[in-house]
Structures are given as C-alpha cells and as structure tokens.
C-alpha cells in the first residue's frame, strides 16, 4: 500500500468517524497495531508515540482512537502522522466512550489487516517498554495480559484507596465471571487477530471502561490461550483519570449482565 493519506469511507459512514491513516506494508513481519484510546491526553500522547516508535519494532503501527478531545489531543496526532507514516488517527465525533472507542479501534485494526493488536492507555501507566515482552509472549499464546499481580509485577497506582478498589474489583470479577487470571482488570494487552475477530464485537454490552472485562471474558470462554507477563503499573504521568464512581457502577452491572447472559 502507498504511504499516502487515505480516508477509510466505510468506517466513516457507519459511525460518523473521521479516519486518517497512513499505511506501509511489510511482508516479512506481522503487522502490529498498538491501539491507544484517548480523551484529553495532550500532555502524554506525543511523548508516548515517540517512546513506542523508539522501540524500533518492525511493522509496528500506532492507532489513536480519540473521542474529539476538547484539549485537541487528536490534532497533535494528526500533526504527528504527517511525519510518521505508521500513525493512524480514528477521530470519533459522536457516541463518546472508552468501550465504544475500543470497539471502533479493534474494527479499524482488523480492517487495516493487523495480525497482532496491542491495547494500552495513553497516560504512561502502561509503559511502552513492556511492548517487546508482550510481542514475544504472543508467539506462544493468543492473548497476553500485562499483569500487576504475577511475580515481578507491581501496582504503583494512586495510593491506598485506588489500590483497594482494584483489589476488590479484581477478586469480585474473578468470582462472578469465574476467570482464573490474576489481573483481569488490566487494560494493557496483546491479542492475535483471530481473537478480536471471534469475540463478537457487534454484540458487546460495554460502552465504557468495563469493555476490558468483556473482551477478556469473551476471549476466555472462547477457549483462547491467555498468558500474563509482569508489568509495574505506574500512576498516570499527566492529566486526569476518567474513571469515576459511575464507571465503577457500570462495570459492576456489566459483569453481572455478562454472567447472566452466559449461565
Ligand atoms: N476514546 C476515548 N478514550 C477514553 C475515554 N475515556 C478514557 N479514555 C482513555 O482510556 C484510557 C484509560 O483511561 P484513564 O482515564 O487513564 O482511566 P484509569 O486508568 O482507569 O484511570 C486513557 O488512555 C484515556 O485517555 C473515552 O471516552 N473515549
Ligand atoms: Mg490510566
């Protein structure tokens, strides 16, 4: 494919999304798409894209899925893509939400022929230095979780309250959904294409951050092989977290819906 600017009309008309992408193919390496959902991440996004590109992973593409951030995150990505041809921007202008953005991003990655999809936050809580380890591990399984709770991992998130919430949520989800992985709420993950193709994105319940659980649950019960690699999770470097009480309540309800749907 050419390295020029392309508008992907099918996604645009289906979801009122503006798509900017530049694509170079590389037949010798699997195509890797690192998907980063963003909302008001202008202090982080350019540095993050630079850090990912500094890894020099062959045939790695970055996809930023931005929900029309008021701080103009998407403009920075658009600008960066002019000089970095493996950068894609999905600029969504309606139906804001971390979950809906994730679904749109996964579909975009599939439509662009990604073989491997990495998903991570924009805020450096998921450090790009772990990407090579995720990619190495995916060679022997279908899903890799960057895990705070396996040997060598750590949760250095904002203090006691946030860590306690994570602890309770994690154990509750493990019990309700019956998933035996250690870090089921980690949003730093790597998937083989076939996983994303087969988890039923069109039937997803999640609109918000709880999508992380839905993706894992569906992957788990499809029988895909899941591995966890240790990560040290840091508090976000810049900007504000979007995870509030409402998101937690939505997450809790969604987990029960998933459970009841699959009884
Ligand atoms: N596209 C999009 N991204 C979002 C939205 N809400 C949060 N994000 C991004 O999703 C990631 C996780 O959100 P964050 O606020 O860090 O949640 P936390 O890690 O649970 O505190 C970050 O990269 C955010 O910028 C949203 O509504 N739309
Ligand atoms: Mg975060």
Can you give a write-up of this model?
It is a single chain. The chain has 263 residues and is an alpha/beta fold. The chain has one domain (2-261): Spore Coat Polysaccharide Biosynthesis Protein SpsA, Chain A (Alpha-Beta Complex). 38% of the residues lie in helices and 20% in strands. It contains 9 helices and 11 strands. The strands form 2 sheets. The chain has a 9-stranded mixed β-sheet with strand order 1-2-5-4-3-6-9-7-10, sandwiched between helices. It has a two-stranded parallel sheet with strand order 8-11. Strand 3 (32-38), helix 2 and strand 4 (60-66) form a beta-alpha-beta unit. Helix 6 runs parallel beside helix 9. The longest helix has 19 residues, at 159-177. It starts with a strand and ends with a helix. The model is unreliable at 1-16 (pLDDT under 50). The structure holds guanosine-5'-diphosphate and magnesium ion. Residues 121, 123, 125, 236, 241 line the site of magnesium ion. Residues 37-39, 41, 65-67, 96-98, 101, 121-123, 125, 209, 236, 241-243 line the site of guanosine-5'-diphosphate (GDP).
- The low-pLDDT segments are 1-16
> Which value, in Å, is the CA radius of gyration?
17 Å
Residues in β-strands, percent: 15-25%
Determine the CATH superfamily.
Spore Coat Polysaccharide Biosynthesis Protein SpsA, Chain A
Average pLDDT rating: 87
Helical content (DSSP H or I, runs of 4+): 25-40%
* CATH fold descriptor: Spore Coat Polysaccharide Biosynthesis Protein SpsA, Chain A
Structural class: alpha/beta
CATH class: Alpha Beta
- What is the first-to-last residue Cα distance? 45 Å
List all distinct small molecules, including ions and cofactors, that are bound in this structure. Answer: guanosine-5'-diphosphate, magnesium ion
Note the total helix count. Answer: 9
């Amino acid at each position: 494919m050419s390295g020029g600017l392309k508008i992907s009309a099918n996604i645009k008309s289906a979801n009122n999304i503006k798509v900017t992408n530049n694509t170079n193919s590389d037949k010798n390496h699997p195509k890797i798409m690192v998907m980063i959902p963003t909302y008001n991440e202008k202090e982080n996004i350019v540095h993050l894209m630079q850090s990912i590109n500094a890894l020099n992973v062959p045939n790695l593409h970055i996809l930023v899925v931005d929900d029309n951030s008021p701080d103009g995150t998407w403009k920075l990505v658009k600008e960066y893509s002019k000089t970095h041809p493996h950068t894609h921007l999905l600029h969504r202008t309606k139906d804001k939400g971390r979950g809906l953005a994730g679904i749109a991003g996964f579909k975009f990655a599939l439509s662009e022929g990604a073989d491997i999809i990495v998903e991570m936050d924009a805020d450096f809580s998921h450090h790009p230095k772990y990407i090579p380890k995720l990619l190495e591990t995916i060679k022997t399984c279908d899903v890799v979780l960057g895990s705070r709770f396996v040997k060598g991992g750590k949760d250095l998130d904002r203090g006691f309250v946030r860590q306690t919430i994570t602890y309770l949520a994690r154990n509750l989800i493990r019990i309700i959904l019956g998933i035996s992985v250690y870090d089921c709420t980690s949003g730093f993950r790597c998937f083989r294409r076939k996983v994303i193709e087969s988890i039923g994105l069109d039937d997803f319940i999640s609109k918000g951050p709880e999508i992380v659980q839905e993706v894992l649950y569906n992957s788990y019960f499809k029988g895909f092989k899941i591995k966890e690699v240790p990560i040290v999770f840091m508090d976000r470097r810049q900007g504000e977290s979007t995870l509030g009480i409402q998101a937690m309540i939505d997450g809790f309800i969604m987990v029960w819906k998933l459970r009841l749907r699959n009884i």
